[in-house]
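Supplementary Methods S3. Input chains for the assembly prediction are listed below.
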Amino acid sequence: MNYLQQRFPIPAFTAFFSLFPQRTISPKNEEPELAPGDFIIYRQAELNRTTASLLANGAILIVGEEGSGKSVLGNAVVERLTDDGFLVAFVEPTTPKQMLLEITQQFELPTEDIEGKNLTVDKLKRAIAEFLGENTAFIVLDDAQSCDMKFRIWLKQLRRKGVPMLVLATDPPRSDIFINIPRIELKPLPEKAIRQIMKAAAQERAIALTSADLSKLQERAGGNPMLAIRAIEEEYLGLDIEGADHRRYFDITPLILVVGVIFVIMRFIGLGTNDQALYIFGGIAAAIFLGLSRLLYSLPQEERRIR
Amino acid sequence: MLGISHLLISGTASSLLLQTADPVLIAVGAIGGLLPDVDVSTSPAGRLFPWISGYFQETMPHRSMTHSIVASAVIAIASYGTAIFIPKLIPIASALTIGYTFGWFADCFTRGGVEMFWPSPVRCVCPGNRNLRLKTGSNAEYFILCILVAIALSSFSINSKGGVLTQFNRLIASTSGVQSVYNSSGSTHKIIANIKGVRAGDRSKVDGQFQIIQPNGTGFIVLEPKTNKLYKAATDPDSQIVIEQITADVSTPAITTIESVFVEDQVIGEAISKFNRTNTNVFISGDLSVEDFDTSVLPRDPYQFKFIDASPSSIKLEAAPLKVVMKFLGDEFASGSLQVRSIVSSQ
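Predicted structure tokens for the full assembly:
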């Protein structure tokens, strides 16, 4: 939709600004375009640190908000270690037994005993622990916050035995394995990287977006690559969305309170200088702003669920 | 947020903060409100400055750097920096800075918010609940637009009549408000006081216009133009008019001057006759020493301000009209000093 039609319903404004046609800009610092399917790891520093830590028999927890790129980073670590010839078990949360079977299979361990019976959970745990005690292999666990508590405690026990592991989690609790191992907190990606991701996503969907469109959509990304791609998808679907789900929002309602306090100070100045008008004006304005601030505080909080 | 909302918010803020109804300043403030959107080439400001918008939209998200305190500071430094060399432009620099700041600040109330504290990437919003924030072109925004129009019109009207505090003084009708009007314009204009109250003598109602001559106690000595009578209008016990409500208007231009005259065993009339000029109201204050003055010749009006207080050996004048002094004291020999207050009006 034309920007002026959207923002200026008055034809006079449209007429005036149509005198200045929109021009095509070609800035010198244009980033190289990513071809569809190209993939860049924007968190090279975290990737190198994590890999180095694992190779030194360490364990590391990577935390970040939903969509911050933990799984991408986890996959990159797995790929690098596998390329270097190491055994890596990459598991995602399911039932504890299923997860243990996943690890066993990826380490190519038998899942049945000599009698042909399936190993129980305890036996699987013991077999994996024995294997990890004798061999150099890594466990990478994604979305660890959704795992069963007993499974996490088992991981903690493995860690005590010096098993290297990478745990990826979104907002994990400050307990068990999450508090036991060093962590890296993923910061939002820089705007330049987010813009590249958005351009690549737009190219993949074959939609032509101008820099102005991308700039407006980037508001909704907040440094989160998943939200950046989602914004492109929403544009692709023609959805009219203004708000976003990132965590960079900061409520400035207390500023209204500060304005009220300034008027209270003005009231005292009026009192001190015997300026009746300033005294009463300051008092009324302070009452309005303090009341407004109280009103804004009492507004219902945003629901955590999507409705 | 709609462009018209930005224009109204910034124009109104400029008018309110600068206490002005000057259309140039309001227009500069309003246009300043559109400038933060220079970070996208599709906005009016972006079309006017395509190279600037081209750089911003390539490198930053919308409503980031240009919607921040840093940007306002840059605009302030640039505009005041220019205005230092051309002082007439200082109000325009103020209007531009205020308009620009309110232009982006208004976007805090939208769903997207603004990066007020750029380079920090946090997006400032108000209120915290996104569902209660404004959506561009929504019914809520049009409702707020209507309120803004009302505020803008009231603000322009108030500022064209002297500003918020002046109008507030009129509203509360207190002596301190009249005092501030008298202080600001009393030396160059006639100040007309609209007084509602009662006469101290018989408590009859007073509701009329009086010219302020000079402050006295908690109130003023005022002149009733129709009768040329002087009163003290205040809440003091010696007032002739006890004020209930008082407001002031700045009337026609009139220059007030104060001169001193020393009388040394001289006829009073001769000493002060030179102040008897046309279109001039002259009031005399001061203390004089006399010998065997006959006080029975002086006029006694219990309803008027006692501008001559005499005893056989001394005369005390306070805002006494020149003509009265000439008439009743003109032939007396006296010594002392007098202060002559001349209010020279153009008519």
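Chain B touches chain A through 58 residues (CB under 8 Å). Strands of chain B lie at 123-125, 189-199, 205-216, 219-224, 229-234, 241-267, 280-289, 308-310, 314-321, 333-345.
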